[in-house]
Amino acid sequence: MENMQRIGFLLTAGICMLLCLHCEENPLDHSVISPIGRQISGQATLVGETNHENIYVWLEGFNIGTYTDEMGEFQIFLPSPDSQGIAGRVNGIFYLYFYIANYRVSMAQVMFADGELITSSGDFRADGKLNGVRALYKLLHIRTTVIPETVPENFEGDINVLVQLQAVSDSVNVVFPKITGGSSGVVFLRNISSEDVFVYLPESVENIQMSEKIGPEIRYIPLVFRVRRGSLPSGRYEAIPYFFVEQDTLPPELLESLDPNVGEIGPDYLNIPFRRDGGQFTVQPLQ
Fold first, then answer.
1. DSSP string over 190-216
2. The domain containing residue 163 runs over which residues?
3. Phi-psi region of 132 (alpha: psi -120 to 50; beta: other; left: phi over 0)
């Protein structure tokens, strides 16, 4: 996260601006590695939810990741022992991680010897199937409200993004890497139809990192950004505040596997899986 200052967005003096980052590839493209050799599979669920898709499942040691489907089911295809890289065949005990940013990370133990899965060991059966279902419990409720909810395409002025945070049980540490004393922070605006991503980056000489410990009482983080006339095409948008939820058991390699630039201010940040409520607003076309 210390690399935030490498971002070189152009900002006009005294005016915050929006930058359109048109992604030729969907930043949420959940591609998986082609199947080679053995596989492990199983199911993970989000407690209290009916849709369990997009839980990120990552296997350390191999640095292989995939995502669950709507039922929470997943498969990871393991490379053959002879294709496991110049470091040699994998040996030892590793962990399979189940990750949604605002849920408590869950883990399962996997054992390998000479590059082969040791069956009937760790948390997996002889057929490579996970024993039981891994349940992820929510750490943090996130709700985003945008005011106004609708603006015309030629709108110019301030849009308010109110971020509502509430810990489910234990307190949660939330980090806003770039925020100012004037309640101005980084906000991503994702066009729901086209997947175009606009980034609001405030201009200030007093940019600071804000770390907040969120407890069971609702906390409100107000963010304000200014839209320049004609900078947002018409369409339906989601406003996504830029922050990180800290978890001690989360290895940094997991986030890096999502994208090497996932910790920087750019569309790659959207590769981090969250479950949020609200945040949608509309830019209406001119009649």
1. EETTT--EEEEE---TT-EEEEEEE-S
2. 2-27+140-284
3. left
Q: Is 175 a domain residue?
A: yes
Q: What is the pLDDT of residues 262-283, one digit of tens each?
A: 988 889 999 999 999 999 999 9
Helix (H) or strand (E) holding 255: helix 252-258
**153 lies in the same domain as 123:** no
Whether the Cβ atoms of residue 102 and residue 49 lie closer than 8 Å to each other: no
pLDDT 10s digits, 202-222 = 765 455 778 889 999 999 999
- Residue that finishes a domain, picked among 136, 159, 182: 136
Residue 34 in domain: no
Q: How confident is the model at residue 254 (pLDDT cuts 50, 70, 90)?
A: very high
Q: Is residue 32 in a domain? A: no
Residue 118 falls within a domain, yes or no? Answer: yes
The residue among 76, 36, 84, 71 whose CA lies nearest residue 57 is 76
- How far CA 282 is from CA of 12, 68, 148, in Å, comes to 26, 30, 9
